[in-house]
Amino acid sequence: MDWIQNLGKNTIERFSAIGRASFMLFGAIVAKPNLAKGFPLFVKQVYVIGVLSLVIILVSGLFIGMVLALQGYTVLVDYGAEDSLGQMVSLSLLRELGPVVTALLFAGRAGSALTAEIGLMKATEQLTSLEMMAVDPLRRVIAPRFWAGVFSMPILAMLFSSVGIIGGHLVGVEWLGVDQGSFWSIMQASVQFEGDILNGIIKSIVFAIVVTWIAIFRGYDAIPTSEGISRATTQTVVQSSLAVLGLDFVLTALMFGS
Amino acid sequence: MNINKTDFESPHVELKNVTFSRGERVIYDDISMVFPKGKITAIMGPSGIGKTTLLRLIGGQLYPDSGDIIVSGQNIPKLSRKELYAVREKMSMLFQSGALFTEMNVFDNVAFPIREHTKLPEDIIRTMVLMKLEAVGLRGAYELMPNELSGGMARRAALARSIALDPELIMYDEPFVGQDPISMGVLVRLIRNLNTSLNLTSIVVSHDVKEVMGIADYIYIMADKRVIGYGTKEQLLESDSPLVQQFLKGLADGPVPFHYPAPSISQDLMQG
Question: Could you tell me which residues are beta bridge partners of residue B16?
Fold first, then answer.
């Protein structure tokens, strides 16, 4: 009978965590924003979360584009369809790999850092001391980080896809000798702005909200001990990765299913 | 020195029949306390009885199960968030760890509450911050980051931050823990001087009997979910309560047992 009890306990714990997370997000983003004070904090976080993630995003994008072109070429060349390499690389990146891989990398690079930072602020009583100074930590600490994450990730995803296409071009055109004209023109003809680019951006906005939300909530809700923070950081990466992959399936089914 | 009746006519902070529990565990069972204006009142007691919790109740970070917590005439648990924040601007708390913001230097840490709550120009803020740092002897350290400070310095910097907006009430959470004798002496004098020069109401939570006896006007001793003794230093030393005597003299045996409740040792050892 124990497992039934545990199942119930875990389910209740899951739901109450969702409840606490919603309260936190509500408190952070619904409150009237103070632009004069909030904007510099937001800019700083965009730098920490977004700009500092650029290297890993750009390098990964380049390599993924290169691998895609290499793998695609070996299949397409059998059918004499290597001219469509540009189409294959760009659609894979824009629709799927750009948003998804960016979100996974973002969870590992920025999400875990957010969780650890907020968890440590909690453990060292910085959040409590903000409250005692009559400064709302949700507005001062949580809100700028949330908005910075939501703002940065779609841009990172676009950069990822762009660099990936350049990587595909490097391998496909420069190395394997696909015709440059067909590479670009078939890509241009087959990629649609609304159907492919916009849907990719929508995906990455959804992932951005989910990953940033999980990361800041896990930090805010962490047990303020070294073990608690390490567990919270792990949870951030695991839960946001799973959430991204699950949501990707749902979004893909909705966007490209019919 | 005996209790001065006028001190208790208009207390700054008052707890009336407060009960507080965490889950199943009762922390306070119907306690009432009074903290007179402009005096240093100490709360002493063994570790783990929730002395810090008491400060959080006064600061409105936790809510009691029942009872009233009156600060400057306002009942903290009944206040809206906005009113609570307004009351908090007049109170301040020195945390055990100091809780300095690690990404800012000492100057910005002390300037933080001023920048948050006033619209003063930067040159006035600079003067204010340097004066507060001068008061705690850290004017020369204003450019240092918190990780470059020793434990004692960090606590003094945090003290400067907590008096930055000239609060009316300041709560010290274990200010003497982990301090060497010199910085301990410095802190004791600082707390005393701040209290007289700014006419602050101070609440000091501590279990360092000697230091507390040196500065407190009134002392509460807590154990076992309630207040077991209170009065001035002299009154407590003369108290005939065995609990109070055990605590003040630091005796291992007495009403508070040294051993955590356990079966008898012979029974425990034989089982293995």
Answer: B68
The half-sphere exposure of B263 on its side-chain side, counting CA atoms within 13 A, is: 6
- Which residues of chain A from 217 to 246 reach within 8 Å of chain B, CB to CB? none
Query: How does pLDDT run across A88-103, given as a tens digit for each residue?
Result: 999 999 999 999 999 9
Q: Which amino acid is located at A93 in the chain?
A: L
Distance CA B105, CA B126 (A): 14
Q: Which residues pair with B92 in a beta bridge?
A: B170
pLDDT digits (tens, 9 = 90+) for A144-178: 999 999 999 999 999 999 999 999 999 999 999 88
* Separation CA B208–CA B185 (nearest Å): 12
Distance of alpha carbon B146 from alpha carbon B54, whole angstroms: 27
Secondary structure element (H or E) that encloses residue B181, with its range: helix B181-198
Residue A255 CB: number of other CB atoms within 10 A?
A: 16
Tell me how far apart the alpha carbons of residues B76 and B83 are, in angstroms, rounded to a whole number: 9
Residues in B closer than 8 angstroms to A118, CB to CB, are none
Distance CA A142, CA A147 (A): 9
Strands B226-231 vs B218-223: parallel, antiparallel or unpaired:
antiparallel
Q: Pull the structure tokens for residue B173.
A: 């959470």
Q: Read off the pTM.
A: 0.85
ipTM of the complex: 0.80
Answer yes or no: do B88 and A133 touch at CB < 8 A: yes
Q: A103: which 2 tokens?
A: 């979100």
Sheet harboring B74-75: ordered strands across?
Answer: B25-35, B13-22, B66-71, B74-75
B243's enclosing H/E stretch is helix B242-249
Please state, in angstroms and rounded to a whole number, the distance separating the CA atoms of residues B5 and B3.
6
Structural element, H or E, at residue A214? helix A199-220
